[in-house]
Known about the structure:
The structure holds two protein chains of two kinds. Chain A is an alpha+beta fold. Chain A is built from three helices and four strands, in the order βαββαβα. Chain A has a four-stranded antiparallel β-sheet with strand order 2-3-1-4, sandwiched between helices. The two termini of chain A are 20 Å apart. Chain B is an alpha/beta fold. Chain B has two domains: 23-191, Alpha-Beta Barrel (Anaerobic Ribonucleotide-triphosphate Reductase Large Chain), CATH 3.20.70.20; 217-435, Alpha-Beta Barrel (Anaerobic Ribonucleotide-triphosphate Reductase Large Chain). Chain B is built from 15 helices and 14 strands. In chain B, the strands form two sheets. In chain B, strands 1, 2, 3, 4, 5, 6, 7, 8, 9, 10, 11 and 14 form a twelve-stranded mixed β-sheet that branches. Classes of the chains: A alpha+beta, B alpha/beta. Chains A and B meet through strand 1, strand 2, strand 3, helix 2 and strand 4 of A and helix 1, helix 3 and helix 9 of B.
Amino acid sequence: MNAIVTVVGQDKVGIIAAICIRLAEYNVNILDISQTILQGAFTMVMAVDVSKATATIGELGAALAELGSEMELSIRIQREEIFDAMHNI
Amino acid sequence: MLNQKEILSTIEMIDQQHLDIRTITMGISLLSCCDPDPRRACDKIYEKITRYAEKLVRTGEDIEREFGIPIVNKRISVTPMALVAGASETGDYVPFALAMDRAAQTCGVNFIGGYSALVQKGMTLADEKLIRSIPEALARTELVCSSVNVGSTKAGINMDAVALMGRIIKDTAEATRDRDGLGCAKLVVFCNAVEDNPFMAGAFHGVGEAEKVINVGVSGPGVVHHALQAVKGQPFDVVAETVKKTAFRITRMGQLVAQEASRRLDTPFGIVDLSLAPTPAVGDSVARILEEMGLEICGTHGTTAALALLNDAVKKGGVMASSSVGGLSGAFIPVSEDEGMIAAAKAGTLCLDKLEAMTCVCSVGLDMIAVPGDTPAETISAIIADEAAIGMVNCKTTAVRLLPAPGKTVGGTIEMGGLLGSAPVMPVHPESSAAFIARGGRIPAPMHSLKN
């Protein structure tokens, strides 16, 4: 099952590293990363595979939110279907 | 393949434009709970609701977490209680409302709807007993919502029921006087009520429905408003297209959540109700969408046309996106629950007569409107009759949810808090309709009801 991780906030050193480490701890495989600076804000979208993850999406969401509050970023993980439903026919 | 822009636009809709699933409502048939002994009937009602809806709230929260989309309310609708209570040998129906309330509290839902009677053509003894118990039932419960259907295109308007409901609304306000007449916020009078509406206070589980069903209501006035900001000054064709595209996206999300909830709860999927349901939050207003189309203040000339376009485009966009669109689907115009409507009413631009005109083209009716506490019952009945006539002749659902707050006069405000918001008290015409309401009987169904 695939999910989308989105990260938005102030750019700083080590954002991608910290998130990748946290995802690896839960055995989440990263499929694709795209990152830009959008109107001054660091913006990253990751497609990840959570089928072998050691935690549920709900738990991953909580872990990423915690990391987000430490780093003053908004980090979330959502199942891919929600975006597919809204943008693809 | 998804691109970054699409993903971020969804995030922005949720974060900044208040996109949410407004409600997952489980409809439960209580017809199997009928029992000559009222106490046993109430036990059966409590047992069945809590058994079927045991996992409703938890499942809703799981979906919310996994998909990252807020699901604001989890609710239950049941068979119109007059049909269930009618089997019991008792004159007091309030215990049935208490059983519903207890079951709702146990399940952890926000509201339970279905303390209802369908009396469009006539009242059974049970219907009348239920209607007369509404003020006490709503005063003694917290989560129970009540509705009464007094007319339909097929049957006409039951004017005896209309007369009775005027008094019941007044009595309900009086019975909840200590809370500014809050009971009336949980009481709707319908014409052409629908059987699969997931929205409160008018939800009930129709007798044509299955044993249990999942209905989902999606919302998103903020998303539509935002989309229209990008097409300023362009012709209405563009406005309609923009609303349709936005409604399509929102409904697709609702369909996904509905199917997921249906699968996890092992309950058949019923319908997605695509309604632009505002909240008092800034940026979540239907009135502001109408103003975005070029009106200085909602309620001025042009408002009805703007609302007609909006209501229609929402349906057209939504209908392609779901396997089954139902409920009320369209745009709601509840005054107290819409920041822009409140402002327009306070400015004096939005008045009751204009709202009545707007209900000809919106998805429901006169909703969450505070009127002076000393408004005569007959005047309230006459407002209901007008609204029911609009519904009957135009083959659409109309409803009246008025709040005659005890002791309040024009210029005052009722504060209900939360999603119910605050309502400025609006003036009604002082001239009497008493002799009109005193006639009773039935207004016959219109010619075009004879379709067979």
